[in-house]
Amino acid sequence: VQENVLQRVLQLPVVSSTCESLQRTYSSTKEAHPLMASVCEVYERGVQGAGALAMWGMEPVVRKLEPQFAVANNLACRGLDHLEEKIPALQYPVDK
């Protein structure tokens, strides 16, 4: 199974803890401000729809470029290996 560089980056403790913190802040802001919550929900639905449309439109291009994406992903994974060796702080949550 080939590694996915985006999944690896999202699993780094420093990145995942930052995302969790942002999600908590976003959720608590929506809970505290009903007007903001309704605006956010409209925005979220719009982003989901636009994302689905973009994926549908890009599918033929992605299929055609799949070999190049695989090579780029492999290179990025090797680069991430190097960064993880050189920067141990990537393995710690943001608060540490």
Automatic annotation (TrEMBL):
Q: Which protein family is named in the record?
A: Belongs to the perilipin family.
The record lists the organism as Pachyramphus minor
The family database entries (InterPro entries) matched by this protein are listed as:
Perilipin, PLIN1
GO CC entries: lipid droplet
Q: Which gene encodes it?
A: Plin1
Biological process (GO), any one? lipid metabolic process
State the compartments where it is located.
Answer: Lipid droplet
Signal peptide feature range: none
The protein in question is named: PLIN1 protein
**Which keywords accompany this UniProt record?**
Lipid droplet
Please give the superkingdom of this protein's source: Eukaryota
